[in-house]
Amino acid sequence: MLDTDSTQARRTASQAGHEGILRRTSLGMMVALLVQLVIGMAVNLYDTVPSRDHGGGALAAIGHALSGGPAALAIHTGLGLAILVGTIALVARSVLSRRRALIGLSVVTLLAILGAVSSGAAFVDKADNGASMGMAVLTGVALLCLALNIYLTGRPSAAPPAVRGTAGQGSAGEDPA
Fold first, then answer.
1. Where are the domains of the chain?
2. Can you tell me the distance from the alpha carbon of 144 to that of 158, in angstroms, rounded to the nearest whole number?
3. How far apart are CA 39 and CA 33, in angstroms?
4. Could you read off the pLDDT of 16-45 as tens digits, one per residue?
5. Is the Cβ–Cβ distance between 117 and 81 less than 8 Å?
6. What's the predicted TM-score (pTM) here?
7. What is the distance between the alpha carbons of residues 113 and 81, in angstroms, rounded to a whole number?
8. Please, are residues 70 and 16 in contact by the beta-carbon 8 Å criterion?
9. CB 140, CB 119: distance < 8 Å
C-alpha cells in the first residue's frame, strides 16, 4: 500500500509525464534554435536586407522579411515565429510540471526568444548591427535555459513514494521467492 493517497500518486505520475514531454520539447527547441542560429549567421554574412524593407516598424519588417526578403531571410523569419510558438507551448508545459525552476527557465527562454524576435525585426527595419548582436546573445540565453531544462528534467523531482510492509523484501516490495 502506498504512503500517499491515490490523488497524490496520480499527480506525481502526471508531473513526471509533463517533465518527460518538457525534456523532449526542450531538446527539439534547442535543435531548432541551433538551425536558426546558423541560418541567421548566413543571412548576416551573405544576404542583404533590401532597403525597401527599412522603416515601417517591427510588424511591417516581419511581413517584409517573410514576403519580400531573400529566401534565407524568409526561412529565418518563419522559423523564428515557429520557435516563438513552440516556446509558448514550453512555458505551458512547464507550468503543468509544477516545478518552479522549470517554470522560471521556460519563462526566461520565452523572454529571450521575444527579445530575439524584436531584435530581428529591428535589424530588418533599421539594418542595425547591434540588433543582430542582440539576436545572437538572446539566442545563447535561450539555448542555455533549454539546456538547463533538459538537465533538470533528467533528475527525478521527488523520491518515489515509500511502500509499506516491505521490510526485508526487494526494493519494489516484491516477494523475493
1. 12-153
2. 24
3. 10
4. 677 888 889 999 999 999 999 999 888 888
5. yes
6. 0.73
7. 9
8. no
9. no
Q: Which residue has the cell 525552476?
A: 101
pLDDT digits (tens, 9 = 90+) for 88-143: 999 999 998 888 999 999 999 999 999 998 888 888 777 778 888 999 999 999 99
The three cell numbers locating residue 2: 502506498
Phi, psi torsion values for 47, nearest 5 degrees:
-115, 155
- Cell numbers found for residue 76: 529565418
Place of cell 543582430: 132
Structural element, H or E, at residue 71: helix 71-97
What are residue 2's DSSP bridge partners?
163
What is the spatial distance between Cα 168 and Cα 161, in angstroms, rounded to a whole number? 17
Grid coordinates representing 44 are 548576416
DSSP reduced 3-state for 163:
strand
Cell 515557429 belongs to residue: 82
44/62 Cα distance (integer angstroms): 16
| 33, 46, 78, 97 from 38: Cα distances, Å | 9, 12, 14, 31
Transcribe 82-125 into DSSP letters: HHHHHHHHHHHHHHHHT-HHHHHHHHHHHHHHHHHHHHHHHHHH
